[in-house]
Design a protein that fits this description.
alpha/beta; 282 residues; 8 helices; Alpha-Beta Plaits; homotetramer; four-stranded antiparallel β-sheet; 2 domains; Rossmann fold
Chain lengths: 282, 282, 282, 282
């Protein structure tokens, strides 16, 4: 038998009857709703978001045919929408600089089968990760980028055709607006600070100097402003005056791994929707 | 204009098309879904639960007429269901023994308008709370119950007609099966331990003796077995060897207040569904 | 018998033998160390801080005589130091505007005997708290201060002679540098945001607009810069896109109560030392 | 120059002057106290514990000579004590069954230099870890132990001479009393449940069936009773009805890694003291 799980993302201005229309649409096409999440920025006059995960069994429907069938409903609600096959794996490119804890965590989760994506490459401006990446049977690219020569063209040549989205697993060079525009797909970054505090370089040092009692890490989409794109997930931990820079860095590593893995899991499962410089994470 | 928010709780064996049927039903009766949560214990052959909050505007529908109209759908799915008016306040009776921190917290939340319920009485086996309860303009009953004479008949006479559900805000006498049966409505208890560890008396002392590094508090429904009813919410906090009994008790008070307030908020908003000795908390 | 607990706070540049000298000093004066905490910003050439809690039994020593006796050691180390009688209660003045959750929490902790301080007054620019404060048998002052007339002279006349330190339990007017200078004692403020993010007005709205996934509250000493004094304690909680302004405010209240109560407890127990715009909290 | 950091652990019945005596002892032998922690189960008549980390510079003192010198003080207080060289690395043996997340985490921390111990071997009853362990240039032993033949003699032959302590990084066979006795050194186990709840097999399934709202993991010393030895560290995380067995297991992995790494770090730094079936973790 042929059972598939499909995911519908749908958004429009909120109006009466949307949920009913969509639920009915899925039912009429032989789907059984497994889980449906919706959120409205304001029940009176807000923007409406919906994510539906539904099962289709022994059905001739394809993602493309369902998307076509949904077009007339979407038109009536002036909605944007997209349907995904849950089992079609995204290609997640990884870029990393010196620190390898986030890289290792992602590779481990990938090999264990939990992180259901393909990893077409790991690209770094440090050669040191070659051996470990190749032990996972993954392609490794070393591009000696640095502050004065970011080598963005060379990088784009590798990553653009090979990846559906990009994870900056502690990649320490800022990417230019031009790079972002040319790549044109989602980029998730892990920032080792509790945004919007402590943007830019050395956030743990900034936290130490401010004397905060809680540190954090933030996974967010990259956009043109430094460390200011929509936040996907944050992790925090209590610290004290006893923590010095090295213990903050050590504690921070766990936070970074967790925040990034959370964000990547949610993204891959199509749970993350960007809206107005924020995210909805179903 | 006449706008009301209604809440539908619906459960049955999972089958294709339930969500569509219910969404359509609400739409046809002029409702606009604000939020819908559903959960299935198993998408193949599980039990299905749904909570829908929907707005009805300028409609002649009443809770009763909607419930009648839903009957035929419910019959087809062999479902149990109930519709509530969100603004119809529940009557929440409170019973308390000596410790008053949970009581004070509930009274404060009630007076601030956050806790949208009526409090028909506070009943205690300690007379000391009379003054503070009356400052909130609430009726106080002192029933000198104790281990050898629980005075359950006298208590039932007061609480049964006056309350829709009962909160044991640190009431330290065990209620008999007979009491539970006669009262016949939901009872929420706060246990000052991390269940299922540390049932019964003196859970903080038990935690101290075991040397745990985390303590907790548990809000749960009361049933016939001691401290074993379905858990609604739990709160935890890290402790260390430095904590003695008094600091565990002090830290625990915050946990108890939070776990109980959480449970009560969820319950009042009809977010809590009991199923198979567990709870679903939407 | 006459048993007292004394607390010594001691700080100087770090040098060999400080702990030995101080321990020996306490021993020679009949004291038994209950707990000693020390911290050095850098073991090689840092600044050294120590807090010792010790028991003195049947001893003619007074705080004053011990302080005199310690002077020669302190001189050798160029140290600052102070000895306190743990049971001598500080006078904690409270100022509050409209929101009363932190006030109520402090009053409850005070009445329960946990918060071992005297409360000489509650002063507010809102008259509404009069009844509840007087139910606790505490003096209440209403001073109709507002943005264009902060009435600082009137306030100082009341608070300066009556209090050893001040708690701003959600007092919403900024205090002038002149006020701080004239009062001249410690002021602890609760800020309803996770500093250094979200200074100034409406921090929950700022957090909402930024789309953070964690909110926080910060208890800190007040100094001349807005919301920038040394942080004493912070509490955080995870939030999501579903949280609107009112739920952030509601969740925030718990954080504020906890962060402020923590800071006040630590302060009263002489566990808080200010140093270089940060705090050491033993 | 020759600078060393030494660690003294000291315990006895609490009496006046202990801290002074020890501080003075260290000072007289040219030591500078970096950090000192002490704890007394009861200041009146309790048991006293102290851990002192001190720096010795250009001194002829050895661990052995200092231990001899301390003997007379220790005798007076009827104390047990031990001095360690902080930089003398412990040999940490690792045993593991099928699940490798804790193993991988320890190996990563070890290779990064954070975990300052030697790893003389990884021993498993599953052959699958051979490749990864050897990539870290560590010896791997496969012993096909199972429930009916635990192969304890063979295991002891390998681990006894090679290790100072043992970490069970998800080793799923119970070790016999005889094994514990013959090994005779500390064994740290990670239990994938929040002890004392959910001992024995399948703790996540137990948690699921009980419907708890918080899950946990516990690192503890192994003794004769199943999952009942002194707890060193615990980590917890909130869960909901939506979590099924696989998501509990996934979330639990993070908790297990953290609790075990915490316990191992504390142990290696000589911060863990066993006392009366509990631990003091300085």
């Amino acid at each position: 038998m042929n059972t598939r799980i499909l995911i519908l993302l749908f958004q429009c201005r909120d109006r009466k009857g949307i949920v009913a229309k969509i639920s009915d649409f899925i039912f009429r096409h032989g789907g059984n709703i497994i889980t449906a999440d919706q959120y409205s920025t304001d029940p009176q006059a807000g923007h409406f978001f919906m994510r539906v995960e539904f099962q289709v069994k022994d059905s001739p429907c394809t993602v493309a045919s369902l998307e076509r069938a949904l077009a007339s409903i979407a038109k009536r609600f002036r909605a944007q929408y997209k349907i995904y096959d849950r089992d079609k794996r995204l290609r997640m490119g990884i870029m990393v600089s010196a620190a390898d804890h986030c890289l290792m965590d992602l590779l481990y989760l990938w090999r264990s089968g939990e992180l259901r994506a393909d990893i077409p490459f790991v690209l770094s401006n440090y050669p040191r990760h070659q051996e470990i990446v190749e032990q996972f049977n993954l392609p490794f690219y070393f591009i000696p980028a640095h502050k004065r020569d970011r080598r963005e063209k060379d990088i784009l040549k590798i990553i653009s055709p090979a990846s559906d989205f990009l994870v900056l697993a502690r990649y320490m060079l800022v990417l230019s607006s031009n790079f972002l525009k040319k790549y044109g797909k989602d980029i998730i970054n892990i920032h080792h600070g509790f945004l919007p505090s402590f943007k830019g370089a050395d956030p743990y040092r900034q936290a130490l100097e401010k004397g905060v009692k809680v540190i954090g890490a933030t996974a967010h989409f990259v956009d043109n402003k430094l460390d200011a794109g929509p936040i996907i997930s944050q992790e925090v931990e209590y610290v004290s005056h006893k923590d010095d820079l090295s213990s903050l860095i050590r504690k921070g590593r766990n936070l970074e791994k967790q925040a990034l893995a959370d964000a990547v899991f949610s993204y891959i499962q199509r749970r993350v929707i960007r809206y107005a410089n924020k995210t909805i994470v179903f």
